[in-house]
Amino acid sequence: MRRLMSVLVAVLAAVSFAPAAGAAAGKAPVVFVHGFSGGSSVLFKEMIDKFKAAGWADRELVRWDYDWKQSNFTTAEQLKKKVDQVLRDTGAAKVDIVAHSMGSLSTRYYVKALGGTAKTKRWLSIGGVNQGADVAKLCPGFLFDSCADMKPGSKMLKALNDSSPAPAPTKYQTLSSSCDVMAPESKVRIPGVPNVNVGCYEHISMPKGDRAITETIKYLKG
């Protein structure tokens, strides 16, 4: 009996200190980040369902929400804390980030300016306003700081694009749509970063489209 108890204790100890399954398999947990308005659980529901079918565990799929009205600089600081929490919870060394629309700004700033290159394996932008959004010119800056960040020439966009827009070792990819008037391909593209046109989808429906989901899973599996 004493020998059996010793074996059980040893087994439980090994299980307790074993890394998370995703970390052991070399698969990074995925942090999903919504854009202007909305929430990640609804926006990425169809995509997350397909991720699960492709082998990701639910604990590896993080739907992150934030106050979309605040400055993207503030959101980036909050994302930094969230990523650190995800790494602690999963035992992974790095995360993958999937961002939609304005979410591309705060996530890129985190990667570029807040130490995110050391903790982000892959970054993917779906309909990201990486070069700004012309419609944001109509948004009064005093109303939402986040909207002002999307105006072409803003402090945020200069910080992201003036030099080293996609710093290594993080890998980058963007997805654009032929029918996205909010973020046409010219606003989505980042110099030196591969872009995939996923066909004709409206801006808000892109993350729910089959082609965008397929390309996202393909990229993160690569």
UniProtKB/TrEMBL annotation:
What keywords is this UniProt entry annotated with?
Signal
From which organism does this entry originate?
Allokutzneria albata (Kibdelosporangium albatum)
Name listed for the protein in its UniProt record: Lipase (Class 2)
Q: What GO biological process terms does the UniProt entry carry, in alphabetical order?
A: lipid catabolic process
User: InterPro entries annotated for this entry?
Assistant: AB_hydrolase_fold, Lipase_EstA/Esterase_EstB
Annotated signal peptide: 1-20
Q: Name one GO molecular function term.
A: lipase activity
